[in-house]
Every structure is written in structure tokens, then in C-alpha cells.
Q: What sequence folds into this?
């Protein structure tokens, strides 16, 4: 997989197929990006599991915090990692000890570890880096268009008005896939420089 | 679901719009409302805290305006956009995110006269200091860079003479200086030039001109290219630092490659207030649907008129980059191969008096201070749009006393030429 620019179908396939998402680094602070994403994905019907050893015994929007991936105790479809690039590898290594393996490992906006990605991909796990599943879900459903964001999708179909807990259709026509060319190039240049 | 890229005309008609979820209306409805009900208290809190996508109040966002924003972002190849009340408002909102009092920005000397005034006087009173550079001398931009420089501002096709700016060369200077390049793409429209493809980080438009295209609605828009890394060195605290306005959110961290557009919305538009009327957004959207058709006709007509003027004995010179003899023709071929725009200047051998006489004799051309209308327009910049500049600055910006500016419309070119011919010989 080329991790500089993902085809929309790759992202769409992941978001359409996963049901449970363990979020590593989920924060109870309501101004942190992980809180935003956790809440949004829960509202869109995903089975969310917050992972944060510092908050065990408490819950996040009604879901009890779990100390680590190994402590979840049931199969999970996707791991969403809210940690800096330098803390990705140990999380991926722990994920690779799970049985069954997760289907997807997703690293948040700003997080990228190509070696960890290669390790996960070598055992058949799909990897997404430097993206936010909330933004991608909002983009492919065009819900993010409320914010003037270029969803890079088109549709001539009438969509239902979204309500609480409703899964939205992500099957709109893509216009080019991945990010816009210019922002892709900028992200690639940044990766090459670092 | 194939990932193929539709053409420009398809995007001009479809991007951002889909049938209304409630009524099925196919044209984008005018959501003429100030505010939007919340589902419940939690939904309200989520929207105010930027945690959920949705509508609160039309000064922050509106569904009609959002269609316009996504459409222009798609046409320009940006990640997101924000529509505001005018091009001037867009410029205030952009620089508010980038500059603190005492900071500097470099601007090309060849700009719309209103921008020169805004930068020189209004922005100076905010402590935002403009440093002028010459778009015909790229090294003048390099020399103008200081540790306080926060942005570079140019026009792709520059008012009033329709000169073409070497966007790539100036973007190289901006990258080296570690500052974003802002390109005013009003006179080109994305149909002729897409500045992001040439290194622009932010694109700004007066929607009032070719995008709206019918001379009936004011508007401005800011497009985020998603290319600039705002996080380095705390140079852009509106984007990189925790914002007290939102309980400590860091916008770049939260919104990634469209953080600048979000900053413009939630820190700029929200707090400064220059919201675009949804009715204007609707009018401009309708205009954009025919942008490719109109823009090509504007350019074809402009070239024919420029060629006619260049061969007329009463005309001293014509500045139109679409003419093979023009000093900007090479740049026009590179940046605007479909046409060099429809705004240009010429000067008359009879000087100022001949210009005044010409304007008074024209029957089809309207004498007014606008460009980018379906109708052909004429103005004498030295006494109007550029009148607040001193004489030297007028000449430097291409608006000397003998200069007449035309904005060529989409009428039949034979009629435009006949009108000019009768006025020049009268």
C-alpha cells in the first residue's frame, strides 16, 4: 500500500466493514482529538473500546476504559492509535500478539511509522497512517461538507438527514481518490524530510 | 465506486451539491435562516466544541454557503474553503490567522487598487506591516524577507493590466522563507489558472467577479490548499497553539490539512463577523455552474478586442498577455494556456483627455468600478480604483493617467469592436 495517498475505495472498504474499534490513547478530556473521534464514531454506530491504562475504573461516554489491547478479552476489528509516531511500534507489536489478529491498524493524523506498518501488513493487516477515521467517515459520507471541506465525492442521490446513531452511506462517487494532489505532495515531502 | 477524476465542468455543476435531504429539491436551496435547532443539549455542546459536523448560526456556517465552499475548494484543488462577505473580508480573515501586531507580509506591487489601500492603511492600523515587492523581479521578494515575515501575497493575473505573475518562482521564495504563499486568483478563476498546482498554499477570490460572473452579488472565498505545515516553531499560534476560545483545542492537530480553513471559520469569521448572505451564495453558485463556458468566451472576446485595439491608429499601446507581442505572453502560455483572462489595459495617444472622451462615447461598455461581469465594462483607473495612490505608485501598478481598463464581457465580439471603433473615431 502506498501510504502517501490512499484510494477512497481502500478507506471506504475499511470503514464499511469494521464494527469494533479499540482506540489506544483515548482521552477523557473533551478538547482532545481522540475524544472527538471516539464520540463521533460511537454516534455513527461503531462498537468503541477506549484503551488508556491511566483511566482504568472510569468510563468514556459509557464505555469502560481498558488498560491494554491484551486486556480487551474479545476479538476486535480495528485498532485506532492516538499516539505520536515514536510510540507506534510497541502498540503494533502488542496488536500482533492478539488472537484473532485485528483486521485494520489505523494511525491518527500526524502519526506515521513505516516499519510498524510493514510489520502489520506482512501478516495481512490493513494499515492506514496519518489520517483520522472521523474525518474520513465525514468526508466519504459528505457530512463534513457542512464545514466547507472538500469531500472529493459527488452524488446525485437524495441522502437522508443524519440523526443520532445513524450509519451513513459512504458509497458516493469519488473524485480522484485520496487527498487532493497538492496536500498529498506536501505530506510526502514532509515524510521524506523527516 | 471508481476513483476517477471528473472534469472541471462536471465539478463546476456538481461539487458540493446534492438533492436536499428533506425535500429532494435538486437546485441548492437558499437556507435563509440565522440559526439551526439542536437535537439536544449534548448535540449543541458538541457543535460548539467543534466535536461534531453541523450548523449552529449563519455567521459560522450555512448549508447554502457550504455548497459554495466545497465547490470552489474542488475547482481549485484545495482541501476546504470558507466563503465570506467580500474579497476584502477574505483578506482580513486570512491575515488575522497569520499575523500578530508588528509582523510583516510581502505583497506584489501590482494588485487591485483596493487591496493596495487595504494593505497600506487599514492593515497598518492593525500592526500588520506590508512590504512591497516587484512581481517582475523575483529577487525583490527574496530581499524583502525578514524574521517577521509571515506570508507572501500576489495576484495570479494582476489588476489592472492583466499581467501574469510567475507563481512558481515566488512559491519557491515562500517555501525557502517558511511562509505560506497567498494567491488572489480573482481575475483568472480556477478555469484559467489553479494556483495550488503551482505552489500556492492559500487561494483567495473576490467571488463578485468571474466566479459569480453576473455583477449581481458580492462575496469572497478563502481556499486552503492543505499544503502548509503550521506546526513548526510556534510561528502561527492561531493554528499550532491551544486556543483559549475553544478550551485549549489545537487546530492543526485536530483538523490536519484543512486546519487553516477551520481557523478562518472559527477564529476569523466567527469573531470578526463578515458572513456571506445565503442568497448571495445561491446567486454565485448559479454563476459558477457556467464558469467554464463564460470564461472561455470572456477570453476569446478579450483576445479579439485586444488585437483590434493593437492595430488601431489612436491607440498607443495595449497590455494584454494574450497578445504574442506582450511582455507577459510567455508566462501566459505557461500558466493560462486557455486564455489570458478578460481584464486588461490600453493607453491612448491622446492621453487622459482622449480616455475620458472614449469612455463617454461608448454605447455598450458600461463605465463602472467592477470587473468580471457578463457585460463589458470600462474604467479609467487613475481617477477611480487607483485614485488614492500617488502618481508614482499609479504608474508602478500599471494605472498611469493615460491608461484605460477594460473588462470584456460575453457579448458578440463584433459588437464590442464596433462600439470601440465608433467611440475611438468620434
A:
Amino acid at each position: 500500500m502506498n501510504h502517501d495517498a490512499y484510494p477512497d475505495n481502500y478507506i471506504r472498504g475499511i470503514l464499511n466493514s469494521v464494527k469494533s474499534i479499540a482506540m489506544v490513547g483515548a482521552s477523557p478530556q473533551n478538547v482532545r482529538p481522540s475524544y472527538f473521534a471516539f464520540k463521533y464514531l460511537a454516534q455513527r454506530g461503531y462498537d468503541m473500546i477506549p484503551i488508556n491504562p491511566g483511566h482504568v475504573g472510569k468510563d468514556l461516554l459509557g464505555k469502560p476504559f481498558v488498560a491494554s489491547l491484551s486486556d480487551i478479552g474479545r476479538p476486535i476489528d480495528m485498532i485506532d492509535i492516538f499516539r505520536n509516531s515514536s510510540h507506534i511500534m510497541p502498540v503494533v507489536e502488542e496488536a500482533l500478539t492478539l488472537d484473532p489478529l485485528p483486521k485494520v491498524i489505523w494511525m491518527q493524523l500526524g502519526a506515521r511509522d513505516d516499519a510498524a506498518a510493514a510489520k502489520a501488513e506482512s501478516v495481512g493487516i490493513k494499515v492506514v497512517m496519518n489520517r483520522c477515521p472521523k474525518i474520513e467517515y465525514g468526508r466519504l459520507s459528505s457530512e463534513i461538507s457542512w464545514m466547507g471541506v472538500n469531500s472529493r465525492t459527488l452524488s446525485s442521490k437524495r441522502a437522508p438527514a443524519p440523526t443520532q446513531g445513524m450509519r451513513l452511506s459512504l458509497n458516493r462517487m469519488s473524485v480522484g481518490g485520496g487527498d487532493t494532489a497538492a496536500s498529498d505532495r506536501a505530506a510526502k515531502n514532509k515524510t521524506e524530510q523527516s | 465506486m471508481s476513483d476517477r477524476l471528473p472534469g472541471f465542468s462536471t465539478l463546476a455543476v456538481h461539487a458540493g451539491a446534492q438533492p436536499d435531504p428533506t425535500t429532494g429539491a435538486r437546485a441548492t436551496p437558499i437556507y435563509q435562516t440565522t440559526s439551526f435547532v439542536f437535537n439536544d443539549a449534548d448535540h449543541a455542546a458538541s457543535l460548539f466544541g467543534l466535536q461534531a459536523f453541523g450548523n449552529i448560526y449563519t455567521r459560522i456556517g450555512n448549508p447554502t454557503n457550504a455548497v459554495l465552499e466545497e465547490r470552489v475548494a474542488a475547482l481549485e484543488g484545495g482541501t476546504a474553503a470558507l466563503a465570506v462577505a467580500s474579497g476584502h473580508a477574505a483578506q482580513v480573515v486570512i491575515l488575522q490567522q497569520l499575523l500578530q501586531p508588528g509582523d510583516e507580509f510581502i505583497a506584489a506591487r501590482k494588485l487591485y487598487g483596493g487591496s493596495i489601500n487595504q494593505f497600506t492603511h487599514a492593515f497598518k492600523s492593525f500592526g500588520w506591516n506590508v512590504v512591497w515587492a516587484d512581481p517582475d523581479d523575483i529577487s525583490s521578494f527574496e530581499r524583502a524577507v525578514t524574521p517577521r515575515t509571515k506570508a507572501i501575497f500576489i495576484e495570479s493575473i494582476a489588476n489592472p493590466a492583466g499581467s501574469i505573475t510567475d507563481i512558481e518562482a515566488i512559491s519557491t521564495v515562500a517555501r525557502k522563507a517558511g511562509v505560506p504563499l497567498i494567491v488572489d486568483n480573482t481575475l483568472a478563476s480556477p478555469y484559467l489558472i489553479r494556483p495550488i498546482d503551482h505552489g500556492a498554499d492559500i487561494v483567495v477570490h473576490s467571488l463578485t467577479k468571474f466566479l459569480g460572473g453576473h455583477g449581481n452579488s458580492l462575496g469572497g472565498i478563502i481556499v486552503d490548499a492543505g499544503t502548509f505545515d503550521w506546526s513548526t516553531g510556534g510561528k502561527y499560534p492561531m493554528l499550532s497553539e491551544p486556543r483559549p476560545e475553544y478550551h485549549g483545542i489545537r487546530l492543526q492537530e485536530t483538523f490536519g490539512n484543512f486546519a487553516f480553513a477551520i481557523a478562518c471559520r472559527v477564529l476569523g469569521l466567527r469573531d470578526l463577523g463578515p458572513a456571506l448572505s445565503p442568497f448571495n451564495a445561491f446567486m454565485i453558485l448559479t454563476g459558477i455552474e457556467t464558469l467554464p463556458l463564460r470564461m472561455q468566451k470572456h477570453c476569446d472576446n478579450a483576445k479579439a478586442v485586444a488585437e483590434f485595439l493593437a492595430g488601431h491608429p489612436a491607440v498607443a499601446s495595449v497590455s494584454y498577455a494574450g497578445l504574442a507581442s506582450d511582455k507577459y505572453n510567455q508566462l501566459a502560455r505557461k500558466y493560462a494556456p486557455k486564455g489570458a483572462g478578460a481584464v486588461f489595459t490600453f493607453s491612448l495617444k491622446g492621453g487622459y483627455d482622449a480616455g475620458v472622451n472614449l469612455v463617454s462615447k461608448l454605447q455598450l461598455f458600461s463605465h463602472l468600478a467592477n470587473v468580471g461581469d457578463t457585460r463589458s465594462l470600462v474604467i479609467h483607473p487613475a481617477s477611480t480604483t487607483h485614485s488614492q495612490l500617488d502618481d508614482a505608485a499609479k504608474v508602478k501598478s500599471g494605472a498611469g493617467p493615460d491608461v484605460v481598463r477594460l473588462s470584456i464581457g460575453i457579448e458578440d465580439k463584433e459588437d464590442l469592436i464596433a462600439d470601440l471603433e465608433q467611440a475611438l473615431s468620434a
